[in-house]
Amino acid sequence: MQALMKNSVLCTPLRAVWEVAGYQTETLLWPASSKAKTVLLFIPGNPGLVEYYTSFLQGIHSKMDASSFEIIGVSHKGHSTNYHEKNNDRKTVYSLEDQIQHKIDCLDTLRKDNGPDTKFILMGHSIGSYIAAAVLKKRPNHGIAKVIALFPTLREIAITPNGVNITRLVNTVPASAFGIAGSLISYLAPPVRQFLVKTATGQDGEGLQVTAHQLLHNHVLRNVVTMARFEMETVKELDHDFYTQHLDKFIMYYSANDKWAPKDHYDYMTKHFPEGKIGHGRLVLED
């Protein structure tokens, strides 16, 4: 792989299928050329298709030293349409704990491949931030230098404005119904599917492409809905001892208008972890 990269002109990101603990994982990769490097592992929210974040991660990469800073973004298990030979059971749905273990396996594999001296940054969006924190909790001595939490859902997700609506929905409509709807939509001609998604969501650009052509499939929607149900049931009280111990590693970004991680979550964190007690960690609120 290194010889290929050295003697070829490759466009980034590289879209790869990365085997992680036996699972063929859809991956975006911005490789570094140096052996001594920092690796950013990006963990998406839900839906967990990493293609939603291509432009965002490309923007990060453009501002970093490409020789020593590597970015790898992974999709969640079961959230990919590009299934491969070893992922042939589309009836499988994965829990939140399954997704956490998958990201632990990703970190373990990266550390094995890159060596124990490699520094890692975990970056997560929404529930991806919760997963990143869980990885740090399980692997506190594996070279994780920072956890960047973007609009993080770290506590009491079911009683957030969006959480209330989603809880009602996933407790009323079975995941299989969403899967059937996805199957019907996936049979539509791509231009028709894209037009309907744009009309319904207002999306454009890469977000529209990912939703229309990668999200709206039976097994993907079943996994998205199943994961959402586990999120509502699992993400409850904050582990204060854990954050007190590790908050110097966290950078958290909140939005005043986010309905998954609302402003009162930011207020809660600043109250329980005031600036004078969090070392070099930062809590940021954006309008």
Automatic annotation (TrEMBL):
GO cellular component, one term: lipid droplet
Keyword Acyltransferase part of the UniProt annotation: no
Transmembrane segment boundaries: none
Keywords noted in UniProt: Hydrolase, Lipid droplet
SUPFAM superfamilies: alpha/beta-Hydrolases
Superkingdom, natural source: Eukaryota
Source species: Mucor circinelloides f. lusitanicus
Subcellular localization: Lipid droplet
Example GO molecular function: lipase activity
The name this protein goes by in its record: Uncharacterized protein
Pfam families assigned: LIDHydrolase
